């Protein structure tokens, strides 16, 4: 038999522990003043995004992450947080960070209007200014990081090669050359692919290798001193002079 004193102490201990437990349950369930809350409408919008809308949000988030942190510090988790989604959602679309970054850069270079000023020189300069803008919006470490991370993946290496070779710009350049040939400004093609891509490649290589972003003077020099002479370009003014001389 327990003594009255032992019984009293036992129930005192039980009541004390029970009270403390109830207090802890209340405190654990309470919302702390500094705990960030997600706006229900924002959360609902995030959960409803699908398809192209969600992909655009992820690509925008990737651009922000790359611009702010650089390629080396960018992560799939960080991009998912910026996009308001989860990392598994990203991995359902892209198997790796390099693949996502390639799509991010590719979306920026996707639409290149083909200039048609009526003169080859002006058209070439317009396209090179587009390349200049693309390089101005791209961090050099993003390209160098992709080169390193895709070195052992032939598929991604080819995608990167197409991207930094400016395949979209090069296709536009081919159209510009065809129109110039129809106007009689240059001899008709076909032109080797390396000739078509030459001015863009020169600007790109200066950026990737040396970190030099092309200036307007660089664009003019590449056009007037390298590309147009290679094509046998006859400027409108020189064509007039030749006609007057023959007359």
UniProtKB/TrEMBL annotation:
Keyword Transcription tagged: yes
Keywords on record: DNA-binding, Transcription, Transcription regulation
Entry annotated with the keyword Transcription: yes
Pfam families named among the record's database cross-references: TetR_C_11, TetR_N
GO molecular function: DNA-binding transcription factor activity; transcription cis-regulatory region binding
Residues covered by the HTH tetR-type domain: 52-112
Domain of life: Bacteria
InterPro entries (UniProt xref): Homeodomain-like_sf, HTH-type_TetR-like_transc_reg, HTH_TetR, Tet_transcr_reg_TetR-rel_C_sf, TetR_C
Residues in the DNA-binding region annotation: 75-94
Name of the featured protein: TetR/AcrR family transcriptional regulator
Lineage of the organism: Bacteria, Bacillati, Actinomycetota, Actinomycetes, Streptosporangiales
């Amino acid at each position: 038999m327990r003594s009255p004193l032992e019984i009293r102490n036992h129930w005192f201990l039980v009541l004390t522990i029970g009270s403390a437990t109830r207090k802890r349950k209340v405190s654990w369930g309470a919302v702390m003043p500094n705990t960030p809350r997600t706006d229900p409408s924002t959360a609902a919008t995030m959960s409803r995004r699908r398809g192209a809308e969600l992909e655009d949000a992820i690509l925008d988030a990737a651009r922000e992450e790359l611009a702010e942190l650089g390629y080396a510090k960018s992560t799939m988790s960080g991009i998912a947080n910026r996009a308001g989604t989860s990392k598994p959602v990203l991995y359902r679309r892209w198997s790796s960070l390099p693949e996502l970054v390639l799509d991010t850069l590719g979306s920026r270079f996707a639409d290149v209007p083909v200039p048609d000023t009526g003169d080859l020189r002006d058209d070439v300069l317009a396209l090179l200014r587009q390349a200049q803008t693309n390089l101005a919006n791209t961090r050099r470490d993003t390209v160098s990081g992709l080169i390193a991370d895709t070195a052992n993946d032939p598929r991604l290496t080819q995608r990167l090669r197409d991207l930094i070779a400016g395949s979209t710009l090069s296709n536009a350049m081919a159209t510009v050359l065809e129109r110039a040939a129809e106007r009689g400004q240059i001899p008709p093609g076909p032109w080797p692919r390396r000739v078509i891509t030459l001015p863009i490649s020169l600007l790109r290589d200066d950026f990737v290798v040396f970190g030099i972003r092309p200036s307007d003077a660089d664009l003019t020099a590449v056009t007037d001193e390298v590309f147009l002479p290679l094509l046998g370009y006859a400027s409108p003014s020189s064509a007039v002079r030749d006609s007057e001389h023959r007359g």
